[in-house]
Amino acid sequence: MTLTTTEFKTEFTKVFEALYASNIKDASSVQQYNALGNFIKVYSSENWNQTNQLYLDNQVKQVYYFSMEFLPGRMLKSNLLNLGILDTVRTGIKEMGLDFEEIVGSEVDPALGNGGLGRLASCFMDSIASLGIPGNGNGIRYRYGLFQQKFVDGYQVELPENWLRNGNVWEVRKENKAVTVRFGGEVYLKEDGKNKLRPIYSNTQNILAVPYDTGMIGYENDVVNNLRLWSAEIPVEEEINYKTVADREVVNQITEVLYPDDSNYEGQLLRLRQEYFFTSAGIQSIVRFFKKQQLPWSEFSNKIAIHVNDTHPALCVPELMRILLDEEGLGWEQAWNITKRSISYTNHTIMQEAMEKWPVQMVQELLPRIYQIIEAINQRHIDKKVPLYGEELTYRTTIISDGYIKMANLAIIGSHSVNGVAQLHTDILKEETLRDFYEMYPSKFNNKTNGITQRRWLHLANEKLTHLIDEKIGKEWKTNPAELRQFKAYSKDKDTLSCLADIKLENKQRFAAYAKEKYAIELDPTALFDVQIKRLHAYKRQLLNALHILDRYLKIKDDPSLELQPRVFIFGAKAAPSYIYAKQIIKFINALAHLINNDPDVGDKMKIVFVENYGVSLAELIIPAADISEQISLAGKEASGTSNMKLMLNGALTLATLDGANIEIKDLVGEENIFLFGLTNEEVNQLNREGTYSAKRVLDENERLNRVLECLINGMIPDIEEEGRVIYDSLIRYNDEYYVLKDFESFVAAQERADKLYQDKEAWNQKALINIASSGPFSADFTIMRYADEIWNVKGKAIKNRS
Ligand code: 26Y
Q1: Residue 753: which residues within 8 A CB-CB, separation 6 or more?
Q2: Domain regions of the chain by residue span
């Protein structure tokens, strides 16, 4: 299918007029965006339909990626790119006298996730479609996305994110595909006359799950897969039972808000409801689809792969069992084999507080039949494993213990594959966090290092760099990212290096213009741009970054004539609303920013920009402008990280601990092209084992650090009396759980190495180029190929020359 500019203009105008019955030039940019979205939907609908039909006709194996979070980002431009009509449409829009970027910018960025895990799910959707793999996303259509973050007096304030305020052009409501999800009530098992026990339910609350489908358009391959998000509604026949607003609220609530917390425990019951809601709806629709094909049950796991993105959808295990046992009448062994063979699980964190567990009583009351099944799975696990592994080990792996249901245990026992998201993370899972399971099921464990889609994170976010690469090495890298390594040949080419520098400067100017407009902060685009963008967590150590900034500030105050490499420090981070300490760090950094940005002694030597409401769209603005990528988590804590990959792909140099995927970045670029610092995972483990670490001693031995910490409590930074004290105490009184002080000196030394290198522009640009050229292996296309081959056993469309 080719589309000329003239055809586009004609078709687009038609769509617009049909929608708004008015003149396009008078329309608002939201209306223009809506019309363009509709045009794209129509343009791609044939492929969407055909893809579906093709999968059905050929009875191909399909993947279902279950995720509580998706962070797709704005979709207009990426859909145009993948359809191969970005340039045509852009030109057409321009010729019509409209502003393309303004139209693009009027799309609301759907924040249906918290952070890394949700964005990963969306990168995966892009790669699955682009590889022509028959794949589907399954999640929740939250009425409100992750809160909008505002700063008021430097404090984070959360506002509701009404992302559907202008409607959503991409989705298609499919009420004909709705299913019923059952909660609560009582259940008992009754002989059905055919020697089978069937459950009898009473007093259940039945909720209608209505799917909204969104096309996931593959890159120039005519494939359109499906992302299915479920919304909770009152079934029409039950309207009569909902007499009060409060009654109705209980139902609406299920898909009302994204659980805004990726660290702590809150609103447990609601979250459990959400998890069962989208899991049950998804599994029901899979089984319905499978039955339509009239294949024997033995074919189920040859046709269907169900992937659970962390434990949030782990109820897939008992739900599939329930349907197979209760509704389809299969025996336990057969149902169990089907379940295990179909389901696979990714772990994304080793942080104990993010390991999901539900009180037994809560599950019993909310999901009585599911509870019975979990109990039976647990009992069979014990009966089978005790003779093989003994009681002690087996009881450490049970699903139910101490009055809780452990979701990771359920996911591991009920699946055939368990993977971590970077090599170190997988090693830690095997050796520490999930060690007992590794002993029991060594062959289930495997690593799948995360990846990112180069289409969004380079092609769209950094078009100038894309053109430069195209010009030098051709376009092959777009479908085979390994080809990016060809770019290395230009690492000594002065012309290329200077183009690279110009592009970086332009991207920095673009960010500077944003900072000026939004925050009235003047930035010098020739300064070094230092970027840390990720959720706010103690283990990610934004605090370490801030202490280094404070240290520099003191140096300037001591000697205002000091020659320092000018720097712009950019932060983007949301804190979970209930995570008080994280919010205190935000306040501290904002107060520090205020002090430094307004101190005439500092001038252009240092500026701090803490952007509000960091998300996918802001990442697209910030990442291309970065010189340094801060990846400074305490070693062993960050499962993988993915901003590290995006920043590297855009030519930032990584300043990092040996944590998560940073280690793999180091292996690819070589130690001379990365700034490493800090404790290693082994060293952290050793310190933890010895238990002799004393933050106070580190402080006593380091005069410079001592001065920095004093500033937290001596009033030098206005308006942080409480926060400064709490942070100080976390470091000294509570002995610095994340070894911020221990790593301080080596962090500062790494920063000094970075400053020094930045003086030598050519050397710096060379390293930037090597980083770009080495980032191919982090393409999500490769990650997905490995999932497809090694876990899901699904095939993509014939893809040329990928290695
Ligand atoms: C239990 C619930 C509160 C919860 C909700 C969300 C627990 C965890 C999460 C999200 C975790 C997450 O985003 N983890 C990140 O996953 C990325 C993708 O694998 C990793 O790159 C990153 O290191 C990890 O922190």
Answers
A1: 675
A2: 59-74+109-375, 494-777
